[in-house]
Amino acid sequence: MAKKPSxxxxxxxxxxxxxxxxRHNYSILxxxxxxxxxxxxxxxxxREGKASLVDAYATVDDGEVWLRNLHIPEYHHGSxxxxxxxxxxxxxxxxxxxxxxxxxxxxxxLALVPLSLYFxxxxxxxxxxxxxxxxxxxxxxxxxxRDAQREVIRELGRRAKGMS
Length: 164
Known about the structure:
Its main location: cytoplasm. The protein is of the alpha+beta class. The protein has helices spanning 22-25, 40-47, 95-107, 136-161, and strands at 13-18, 26-36, 57-61, 64-68, 89-92, 110-120, 123-133.
């Protein structure tokens, strides 16, 4: 069984931004790690911990994967060489991974959603999820399951302490 990625950072992994609403709005089917092509001022701005994945999404165009709507604010020490905050950024994936993504996206009603943006061994990476959008009733079912699981754990804790 595949291990579910936790919200905590792995060793050597410095999280810059995460998309917390993604797991609420989408059913995650598969997770990929991709490199991001950035300009120097973008990396400097990310090192300050500034970025937003709120409206970000990825698309596959002409055999290339692009991250769109990722907001990296301008570097405050930058000059005329500063970058545009919401420009499209190319993602680095293997050709076989891109071909698999193209096939899966065309088959079903799936989207590429960025889950987190982080530094790994000095390089900026993005965790991409192949996801299916949830309907309102799916979200309610997930919340009910989570509440029921929380209640079971709470009751087991009470029994272990001899309270009931």
